[in-house]
Amino acid sequence: MKADFGKRRAVVIGSGVGGAGISALLQRAGFDVLLLERNAYPGGKASTFEQDGFSYDTGVHYNAQGPNGPLALLNQRVQGDLQWRVKDPYARLVYGDKAIDLPQGMRSLKFRYEFATKILKVRPRNALGIFRAYRKIVGTRTEQDAEPYDHIPLKDFCDQYSDDKLFHGYISWFCMLGLCIPYTEASAGEFMLTMSNYVEKATVSYPKGGFKAIPEAYIKALERDGGRVIYENAVKRIVVKDGKAVGVEADRFYDADVVVSNAGIRKTLSLVGEENFPQEYVKRMKALKYSYSAVTIKYLLDKPVFSKPNIVHYDPATDLVAAYRDIEAGKVPADKDLTVWLSIPSNHDPDLAPPGKQLMLAFTMGGPPELKNAPLWDKILDRLDKKILSLHPEMEKHIIRRIKTTPKTSAEIAGRETGDIIGLAQRYDQVGGNKPSPATPVKNLYLVGCSAGGRGIGTEQAGDSALKVSERIVQDLATQRSKSRMESPIRVPRST
């Protein structure tokens, strides 16, 4: 993708995975890149923090494709130093009174049979429909395969194959973990594509050094290739002249031929000024829905308690639709509806905890991302803590410290008005052709990250966006340059 742009200047706002990734890609493509970050550290919601010798992520993250996905491809293109840790089995699923190890890819017929009959307890009369649904899901290999299902709610897709409640419950649960919205709202095509990649690639994994290692690898590549990053330098305004982005105001004015925002759509509208966009565009962007939020507890343990890299608790009686409804009404979900995901990163990378100790991260949903829900989040955290200790009483006496985070934490880190987990919700009416274009109506102003341009789960969607949006920018500027040359007047030499 290397091109001669005469050192065209690109300013990138925000060092999340999408911002850090596209910065390194554009620098390598021939741009002179400046990355501006409001915090004193990189990564945004993919940051990692330290306390008492432990290194813990902002949220509870995992990569569905790891070394075979878009984050690794991006790392390869910029020649970064990102490394992955892959475990098989990658998780222990505790399902009511049953438990089963989840192998990478879950491909074997024996595993699928045992899972369907012993865990889900699928009735024989429902098995054929469920098998057909599964085959359709894992057969969705490309974006073109997913397109016919993009604008169908995931629940409606499941209804076409079976009304089995346990099947619906399991799909709803997996959708919550992957897309972080109810399956009544999620895009069937988006879910099918992410699930297919998860099964096909069979490399669910965790980055060595914690999730901050992902943006850090890209930033190292950026700086190695001559780009710059300035921390603690929040952008105050994106400057527009004659319908074109010409730079940004931060600690001073930085001129640019291209401005790329990893700050999210709403924040970008504010930085530019709504008057610089068509009003219909502003109206549509403001109407977009965002993924749900999450609450987390980081447990610092004085000894290893857990042997698995991940443990997921799911009650077959769980009604996630009812849980979402309770939270939206300001209620703490019933205990059976409170899904618990435990991640033990130090089982992947022992350096994330001091010798002889263990780091465990716990996650459950926090409901709508608006920050007015703060009082409810504290109640959910208390319920989550009590439930975890009831499920794993052996860990209580080994807890050194609990570090609790709410959607307000992630909003403050990202500098946004909402505490969503992912960003733009992967709803049936917001994906595919209905997803915002990375190229905004303001010329040479682009969006990157989970707001535009990518597909996938969480940070992988941001990495996919960086890959695609960087290619779009290179193509757009090459087209502009070619058009400019064609429109230049032909100079006829003056006769002597």
Task: Give the topology, please.
Blueprint: E1 9-13, H1 17-29, E2 32-36, E3 48-51, E4 54-57, H2 70-78, E5 84-86, E6 91-95, E7 98-102, H3 109-119, H4 124-138, H5 143-146, H6 154-159, H7 165-178, H8 188-201, E8 205-207, H9 213-224, E9 228-230, E10 237-241, E11 244-249, E12 253-255, E13 258-261, H10 265-272, H11 279-286, E14 293-301, E15 310-314, H12 320-328, E16 340-343, E17 358-367, H13 374-391, E18 399-405, H14 407-414, E19 445-447, H15 459-487
Parallel strand pairs: 1-2, 1-13, 2-9, 6-15, 13-19
Antiparallel strand pairs: 3-4, 5-8, 6-7, 10-11, 11-12, 14-17, 14-18, 15-16, 16-17
Helix pairs in contact: 1-2, 1-9, 1-15, 2-9
Walkthrough of the structure:
By secondary structure, this protein is α/β, with parallel strands linked by helices. Helices cover 36% and strands 19% of the residues. The protein has 15 helices and 19 strands. The strands form five sheets. Strands 7-6-15-16-17-14-18 form a seven-stranded mixed β-sheet, sandwiched between helices. Strands 9-2-1-13-19 form a five-stranded parallel β-sheet, covered by helices on one side. Strand 6 and strand 7 form a beta hairpin. The longest helix is centred in the last third of the chain and has 29 residues. The protein is globular. The C terminus is likely disordered.
